[in-house]
Structures are given as structure tokens and as C-alpha cells.
Amino acid sequence: MAKAVYNLLLSLCLVVVIPTLQANILENTTTYVEQHFGTVDDEYWKERASVARKLSENAYFPDPHALTRNFTLTVQKDIASSKKIRRSLSGKQVEGPCEATNPIDRCWRCDPDWESNRQKLADCVQGFGRKTTGGKGGPIYVVTDPSDNDMVNPKPGTIRHAVTRNGPLWIIFSHSMSIRLNEELMVSSNKTIDGRGVDVYFNKGAGITVQYANNVIIHGIKIRDIVPGNGGLIRDSEEHYGFRTRSDGDGISIFGASNIWIDHVSMRKCSDGIIDAIMGSTAITISNSHFTDHNDVMLFGANEQHTIDKVMQITLAFNHFGKRLIQRMPRARYGFVHVVNNDYTHWEMYAIGGSSNPTIISEGNRFVAPDDNNAKEITKRVTNDDWKDWQWRSMDDVFENGAFFIQSGPEMKTRPFGLKDMITPKPGSYVQRLTRYAGSLKCRVGEPC
Ligand SMILES: *[C@@H]1O[C@H](CO)[C@@H](O)[C@H](O)[C@H]1NC(C)=O
Ligand SMILES: *[C@@H]1O[C@H](CO)[C@@H](O)[C@H](O)[C@H]1NC(C)=O
Ligand SMILES: *[C@@H]1O[C@H](CO)[C@@H](O)[C@H](O)[C@H]1NC(C)=O
């Protein structure tokens, strides 16, 4: 019964989605920018855009394969050492006092003092976003007030006040809270939003925007039921507020931004994308997160006119793409996406798609196809062009229930993760283990998390 209602809702949603999608395919960058922040003649945003573009260009890693090689090796080493530990405890079913199952988590989760060493988290990021430090080195800002009533002069103690301050800040929450954002939350550079130790929901309001900003960590929060904000005057930094048009309803919108790390976030039901990264955003890692109940999950590159997206480099690692997801995990244009050790257990249309010749390296993931015989293909090229040369490669992925990945483009000549003597993992079983704690964690002060 519930399922039937759900299917009905779903088909209604799809009907609505098609015209919206077409509306989103805007003719050119100028129109796109105008729609997103009023006018391109705004001097303030012009300046921020040009600073951000330089940062994106500097963050771009010209030899992505070298980085890929490094990253994957760490995973394998980690598995090898955890195996050794298990063997030395042979006979006992001991998991150890803390069960961090992947190298990012292992860097901080087992520290019982994580609460007093919160900023240590910033040392743990891997992949393309590995230089992200967020608010490290800055003071702790404690959000005490879940309200969000004044968009221009936010009250001290609110999240909007915190993210619009200048300088690095490590933002935490005094108690569990549910925050309904009245308008998109404009996060400025050098910030960490750290929800560990309490339950923080961004619920039923507008989403989080990182626009022409740099160096942001979002960790340990839940984002759900996000709707568009109506737009209006919104503060984006200590010295500036300005008019914003209606927001898209993305959970997290990354717009011309670089060095972004999203980790252990649980997200569902946003009215546009769950996470969109567009307009030359790069140096991004999305890890350990759990996604459910959504149609267009991740859009990396919004338009083929945006050739700036060639600098886009994004790592997706240890995420769980879970129940009731439909498509775009991700859908990419131009950039380089490393999809490593993620668990794809549900999709209704396809998992990974793209257009405009993106590079997609899929390694060590598990793909469990839906029962629908028309949706067994993981990949989707949204194009009339010849895509045979696009480099979309699958290595050590595990396919279940008839899932298949159509590869294209040149093979990786040297396997990017290949030290010959390393144990070749059995990907399926490892992925479930590596992603076991995906989503926001229940951390208690004084205990390993
Ligand atoms: C982009 O679109 C705007 C508004 O439709 C138009 O004025 C402008 O000439 C277009 N620019 C290009 C390069 O096509
Ligand atoms: C690869 O890892 C080594 C050792 O951890 C480090 O010194 C080096 O900078 C890394 N290379 C890249 C490209 O990140
Ligand atoms: C962010 O921090 C870096 C490093 O301290 C600094 O160079 C940069 O100016 C900061 N950005 C902003 C917008 O404050």
C-alpha cells in the first residue's frame, strides 16, 4: 500500500521534473549567472568570482592519475593492516574497541578525545579535496539558536551569523537542533560545520550554498526535505548582503567554489539536486555520506557552455547510495570524477551518467541493479555525440543482480592503483565494510566515535 502510494507520488514527481529540467538547460553562462545572483554587473560578486576562479585554477591537479594512484593505495594498505590485526587476534571475534573501516575514518574516529581535538578532522581528508582545511586554526563558534529569522542581520548564535563571519571558524552546536533555513545559507570561505556529538537537522527549509568561496568542510549533519528559498536580500559575508533570486532547492549547492569536503552527511529529499557542483567548482571530496529518497542526486557541471568545468575534479569515496534514488550518482560534464569504493544498492534509472566528455574512473565499487530489466545499465551517456572516446573505465567493481557498466575510451595503461604485489581486494565484501558507517554518526563525548 505504502509502496503504491510512493510509486504514484514518484510518477507525479517525474511529470513535474521534465519541464523543470528543460528550464534548467539555459542558453548560456550569462543567463545562468543572472538567474543565480541577479546581475553579473554586481561589482562585489564579480570580484569574488574572479578570486574564486583563480583559486579553482590553482586547485586543479594537472595529473589526476597520480592522485588517483596515491589515494587508492592508501585504501589497500589500510585493508592489509586491518587484516593483519584480525589475524593476530585469531580465534577471537574481536573487532577492536573502535571500528573505523576506512582510512578517512581511521584518522580520527577512534580517538576518545575527538571532542577536544575537533580540528584534527581537517587532517583526514583524502582524494581531490585533500587540501581542504575548513575552519582549522580558527576559533570554535557554538551555534546555540536554531532560528533563522533575519537574513540581513542574523542574530549572534545562529548558523547564519556563524557562516557569514570573516576568517576561519570551526562551527559546532550546543545541543541537538532542527534548523529550517528561510533562505539559502550562504557559507563564506574557511568554515567547518561540524555536527558531531549532537543531532543537527537542516530540515524543510532552503539549502546550503557555497558560492565563489573556498575551503569549506561540512561534517556530521542531516539534510532533508529541502525546498527552494523565495529569494530576497541575504547576507553572504560580514561586509556584504545582496539580492538573490529564488534558490534551486539543492541540499548543497557548490558554485564556482574549490576545496570542499563533505563527510558523514545524511541527505534525502531535496527538491533539486542533493549536491550540485557547477561553474568551475573543483578540489572536492564527498565521502562517507548516505543518500536516499531522491531523483537527481548529483549534478557536476550544469551546462555544456560552461567549459570552465574542465577544471572540475571530484572524488566520491565510501558513500552509500541507498534506497529510492533514481538517477545521477553523479551526472558529470567535462570534469574528472573518481568514484571509489562506494556502495550503490539502489537506483531506478541509472547510476552514473554524463555528457560533454567527462572522465569517470570507477574503482572498487559495488553496483546492485534494480529488478527492472530496463535499468540494469549503470552508465548513461546523455548525448547524440560520439562518446566512444570518453574515458569511462570500471576497475575491480562488483556487479550484482545483472548490473553492467559500459566502458569507453582508452584503458588505463598503468592501473592507477597498481602496486603489483598488493593483495587484490574482493571488492564486494570490502565495500560493504568500508561504507558500513556512511551517514552522520552518533558520537558521544569521551568515547571513540
Ligand atoms: C546569452 O543570453 C543573453 C540573454 O538571453 C543574451 O543577451 C546574450 O547575447 C547571450 N550571449 C551569448 C554569447 O550567446
Ligand atoms: C602521495 O602520498 C605520499 C605519502 O603519503 C605523499 O608524500 C605525496 O605527497 C602524495 N602525492 C600526492 C600527489 O598527493
Ligand atoms: C581563507 O584562509 C586563507 C588562508 O589563511 C586566506 O589566505 C584567505 O584569504 C581566506 N579567505 C577569506 C575569504 O577570508
UniProtKB/TrEMBL annotation:
TM region positions: none
Keyword set includes ATP-binding: no
Start and end residues of each Pectate lyase domain: 176-373
Note describing how the cofactor binds: Binds 1 Ca(2+) ion. Required for its activity.
Leader sequence segment: 1-23
Main location: secreted
Enzyme Commission code(s) on record: 4.2.2.2
Keywords on record: Calcium, Cell wall, Glycoprotein, Lyase, Metal-binding, Secreted, Signal
Pathway the protein takes part in: Glycan metabolism; pectin degradation; 2-dehydro-3-deoxy-D-gluconate from pectin: step 2/5
Domain of life: Eukaryota
Native species: Stylosanthes scabra
Name of this chain's protein: Pectate lyase
Entry's localization field: Secreted, Cell wall
Cofactors: Ca(2+)
Family: Belongs to the polysaccharide lyase 1 family.
Reaction it catalyzes: Eliminative cleavage of (1->4)-alpha-D-galacturonan to give oligosaccharides with 4-deoxy-alpha-D-galact-4-enuronosyl groups at their non-reducing ends
Molecular-function GO term, any one: pectate lyase activity
